[in-house]
Every structure is written in C-alpha cells, then in structure tokens.
Amino acid sequence: MVLKFNSRYLFVWLLCCFPVLATAQPPRGPLAISPQINADKTVTFRYLAPSAKSVRLSTQFERAPLEMTKNEYGMWSATVSPVTPDIYPYNFIVDGMQVMDPGNVDFFPNERFKASLVDIPDDPSLIHSLRDVPHGTVTYEYYPSAEETTGSLVVYTPPGYETDLSKSYPVFYLIGGTTDTEETWFKVGRANFILDNLISEGKAQPMIIVMPYGNVEGTIAAQKGLPKPADPADREGEEAVHRAKTFENDLTDNIIPYIEKNYRVISNGDNRAIGGFSRGGGQTLRAGFANMDKFSWICCFSAYLTDQEMESSYRHVYENPELTNKQLKLLWISVGNEDFLYEQTVDFMDFLKSKNVRYKNLISSGGHTWMNTRLFLTETAQLLFK
To answer: Does the bond joining 50 to the residue before it have cis omega, within 30 degrees of 0?
Structure first.
C-alpha cells in the first residue's frame, strides 16, 4: 500500500501530532552570509563572533590582513575592493587564531593550514569554471602503498570514458605541493573542469589524470598512530631528497601498477606524463629524470633542482643532451616572477640551457600561488600527448 499526502495537509498534521517539533527549535540569530560576491566584484566577508575582541580577514589578494568591523549583533564584516576574477584562499584571524569561514562550504584541502575558498567569476567564464560542456568523472581511489599502508588517490577520467569501453587513454600523474593532499588539484586546482573545458574546445587530448597524496611518510605515520613528521627544513637537503625517493618508489612500484590494472590506459612512456607544483614539482623532476623510460612528458611548476643535485644524481640528463631531447617530448618549467623560488628556478633553467637540454618555459606574474598553478596546468595540458 502506498500512502500519498498533500504536502500542505501533511505539514499541518505534523504540527498537530508532534507539537514539540514546532516549539523545541531554538531562536535563530543573525546569519553570516559569507562570502558575498557583489556585482561590481567587491566581496563582503562576515564572521559571527560576539565575544571576540578582534577579527581580521587574511586573503591572497590583499597584502596584509584587513581589520573587520563589529555590529551590535556581534557580526564582524569587511568589504574588499574589486577583485580580479579567480579562485582565492582566505581565512579569518580571530583573537590571533586562524579559522576557516563557517558560512562557506568550499575549503582548501591541506594537512597543515585550513583556509576557505572564494571563487570570483568572470564573463566570459574562466577556464577553471563549470561550463555547459561534457564532463568527466572524479573518483576517489585507495591502493596498497608503502609499508602495508593504504594510499589515496583522486582520479579524473575524461568525458566518454564510461561509454566507449574500447578506448584507452594516456595518463598524467599530477602532484600537489608541500602539505597539500590528494584533493588539492581537484578542489583548488580544478583540474577536472580545466580538462573538461579544454577537451570540449579541442585544445587538449582526452586523458586520465591521477592525483596522489605526495606525503608517503605522512600516510605511514597516520596509519600507525604516530604524529606526522615535520616538513624538511631544507627542500634541497638529505631528508627532502630521501622523501622524494620514497614518493618515487611508491609511484613506480604501487600507484602506476594500480592505475594500469584498474583503468584503461596506454601503458608506455610516450603516454605517461608527470607534473607537480612546489614540492610536487621537485618530486616530478626527480621521478621523471630517474625514470625517463616511463615518462616522456615532465612538467615542473614552481620548483627546481640545484646544479649540485643534477651533477650528483642526474648527469645522464645533460651528458647526452641529444638523447634526452629525443626521449623527452616535453620538459616544461614555469614560475611566477614574484615566487619565492623564482631565482632558483631561473638558475635551473640556465643550467639546462648551458647543457643544451631543451625545455619550454613560462614566467608569469604573481607568486607561489594556486592562481598561477591553474594557469600552468592550463598551458601544459594543451601540449601533452600530441
């Protein structure tokens, strides 16, 4: 037997039968609508904290945190000047404590700091925006990782992957930066929307993107009940190089075999690319240079290797530049001109140039930000597997 109710009479019946439902709800206070993107691209941020003594807004489009003002209800607010359309992280500093925006469901996945995200739209829409085009699928995967732990991946498959079962695809292994998680390229980098839009425009080849968590030691510690190890103080030091090797081994011994077993991929170096941002860029260079039989496409975003490390570990890359230039279909290096790694990255490019190793590069404006990283992905995705 199926019971059907008119929604109006059902509501009245519920009130009569369960008066507690109508009376037990606490009174609603003021709602913090935040962030509020205004028509002129100004943005209003709000945070409800009646007992706070100070609330400031910290964003990547302002040079310094902004003081927020408090009204009679304890609602703090600040409206910023028109913002260039893009996606930006931000947080509130409440009596010295950094907190996310509780009124915003969009957040920056990261193992150390917590930030919310504000997406300032544009017209026409930006390449990372949701558009009315065919969309791929994003899947969370778990695989057998180092020391009998379980690793985590986010996998993007392009439009048509589920319908044309006869087709196999090239794979782009895409790694986040220090403290980023496997979700960061998806939720902040918007890799899925960027590829959807480029593929729909015929600017990028359909490809699978695999986004791993780059901190293997962190996974091991967490699953064994230990505190996550601190980040290496020296990104060029022995500990940083050791951790990069751990990730490389996990990639080649565990991640790639798992993907090639469970997805329809073309399993050769000409159809594998590797790329990464910041720490992930260093992992990219080390794993790519050490496995040039496995990767013909290497994309480094805001990262570098020193001359000393190249000489001690990767002499084969430059001692026979003709062979390297033949093996690598693309060696890409990009960095912002305000990035704190700008000078080291330029030095790395100069080293490769002096050794006649070919590469493509892009020096953008701005710093060590995900605004730049989305740009770098957009540019490189159009070059891969062509």
So the answer is: no
